[in-house]
Amino acid sequence: MKNTLLAFLLLIVLSSQPLLGSSQASPEQVLDIKGKNLRANTYYNVLLSMPYTNCKSPEGLGLSSNIDQPCPLDIIVVSRYQSLPIRFTLLNPKKGIIRVSSDLNIMFDSNSSCPYHTTVWKLDRFNVSKEKSLIITDGFIGAPGPHSIGNWFKIEKYVEGYKFVYCPSVCSSCKHECKDVGLFVDENGNRRLALTDVPYQVKFVKA
Ligand SMILES: *[C@@H]1O[C@H](CO)[C@@H](O)[C@H](O)[C@H]1NC(C)=O
Ligand SMILES: *[C@@H]1O[C@H](CO)[C@@H](O)[C@H](O)[C@H]1NC(C)=O
């Protein structure tokens, strides 16, 4: 009996060898709602919905200035018809196709209301375990390492679409927790993006 089991295990190990080899292939491409590859430096509107709600009226993402602190701009959830497009840049700028689990920077078009701040997404707090970490703007592109650790996001497959996650692999010495990007309603009732346990499902529409 034991021998049969061993032989069976050996068979599994051997037959999975080709699989191990192919796992070195690039991860899956992220697709827009038309089934086209998502590309770096191309503008997309994001369709947000709560997962498993069969939401027929997804929402979008926009920018808003806060009375207490006009700049940098806040990222807010808006109706999809008021959505502002975003684009992505990859850790490796020579690559053009966005794949799941790739480290990327995300940004809106530059905005004249805050000319001295970028519209690149970043975490307001880099220590994810501490408190609610909102996603705000004024990050910067590239420069992987401890100073940029709050600027990197990834797209992962989720339900019928994707989700944004914070799980940077740009810096081996930086300790961080991985978390999903979802909704947070702030003290002024603004609907913002933050690291949460319930991610938004996102889909992409070429702008
Ligand atoms: C610029 O930011 C304001 C919020 O302060 C927003 O209402 C507007 O849509 C933004 N414009 C562009 C072009 O992104
Ligand atoms: C992050 O915050 C937690 C909880 O306050 C603390 O235990 C941890 O040491 C902090 N990590 C870093 C890298 O500062």
Automatic annotation (TrEMBL):
Predominant location: secreted
Alphabetized GO MF terms: endopeptidase inhibitor activity
CDD domains, per the entry: beta-trefoil_STI_VvMLP-like (cd23375)
Signal peptide: 1-21
Key words, A-Z: Secreted, Signal
Compartments where found: Secreted
Pfam families listed in its UniProt record: Kunitz_legume
One cellular component (GO) term of this entry: extracellular region
PANTHER family on file: KUNITZ TRYPSIN INHIBITOR 2 (PTHR33107), KUNITZ TYPE TRYPSIN INHIBITOR _ MIRACULIN (PTHR33107:SF82)
Protein name, per record: Miraculin-like
Native species: Vicia faba
